[in-house]
Structures are given as C-alpha cells and as structure tokens.
Amino acid sequence: MSKKNDVILKVLHVISWVVFIGLCTEAGALIFNFIFSLFKPIASHNIYKGLDLSGIYEKQFPHFISLMSFVVLLAVLKAYLFYLVVKIFLKLNLVKPFDIEIAHLIEKMSFEAVTISILSIIAHQYTKRLIHKGYEVSNVENYWNDTAAFLMMAAILFVISQVFKKGIDLQKENDLTI
Fold it and tell me: What is the pLDDT of residues 10-46, one digit of tens each?
C-alpha cells in the first residue's frame, strides 16, 4: 500500500472518531433534554438546536413522547452505526484484509442502516399525519430527512460484505494450497 493511501486511511479513522463522538454527544443531549422536558415542560420550547415541540407537548402529550422517542432512537442508532465504523478501523489489518469479523461488522452496519431507514420512514409518515391533523411539528423532520442516503448506504455495505465473504473464501483456499 502506498503512503498516500495509508495517510488517507488514518485521516478517515480520525474523521470517523470525530463523527462518532459528535453523534454520541447529540444522542446524549437529546436523551437528557427529553427526560428533562418530562419534568420541566418549559424545556420543550428548545429541546435541541432549536427543536420546539411545546405546542404538541401541551395539546397531545403522547404524541410528544412518540416524536421524541423517534428522535432519540434514530440518534442512538446513528451513533451505534459510527461505532461500528470505528470498530472496523480498529480491527483492519491491511496485510491480511479479509477477516470474518470485519465481514460481520460490515454486514451488521448494512442491517443497521436498513433499520435507520425503516424507522425514518415510519417517523416521517407519523409526522405527516400529525401535520395533516394541524399540529406544527414540521421542524422535527430534520431528524429523519436522510432516509434515502441510509438506504443506499445499506445496499452498498451489503454488497461489500458479500465481496468480503468471497474474499475470505478465496484467502482460505489460497492458505490451504500453500
């Protein structure tokens, strides 16, 4: 491997750590503010980065709980997805790249991305119904507006995991012939 590719991998490793820490911070802040708003309703005016669900908090508390559950769950799932990315960088061995553990991690990331997409679609439909009923909750859509990207990511990761599994089989055959 060239030095240029080695540097790129190290930079990507650092970026994945930064993204993971950022997503963990966001998930932690959302969880804290969600719990805090349950005891102090004034907190529902600015839950996180200007998210204001005070109207639905006052009118329909169960819908507030449902929306915040979607927001928190998606934030946690995205953080977990990037935890898996960080874990791959920690286990990556470029001398013998086809490792069954990495193939399983990539496949797990694919299923995680599908889960995020499906949950985002459900949350989007739920929000659409609330908006149709006259509730002002359109600002919460920002938390699940990347459904297509995660669906595409899931498909690409699934293909890569299958290529990795084939590479593992070829590596085993190669090891047996020596």
Answer: 999 999 999 999 999 999 999 999 999 999 988 888 8
Q: Long-range contacts of range 121-127, CB-CB < 8 Å, 24 or more positions apart?
A: 121/147, 122/70, 123/67, 123/70, 123/71, 123/74, 126/66, 126/67, 126/70, 127/67
- What token pair was written down for 99? 């490792």
Cα 121–chain centre separation = 14
| pLDDT tens readout for residues 101-160 | 998 999 999 999 999 999 999 999 999 999 998 888 888 888 888 899 999 999 999 999
What gap in Å lies between CA 111 and CA 126, rounded to an integer?
A: 22
Would you say 116 and 57 are in contact if contact means Cβ atoms under 8 Å apart? no
Amino acid identity for residue 76 in this structure: V
pTM score > 0.70 for this model? yes
What count of other Cβ atoms lies within 10 Å of the Cβ of residue 54? 17
**Alpha-carbon dihedral sign for residues 64, 79, 49, 37:** positive
C-alpha to C-alpha distance for 178 and 176, rounded to whole angstroms:
6
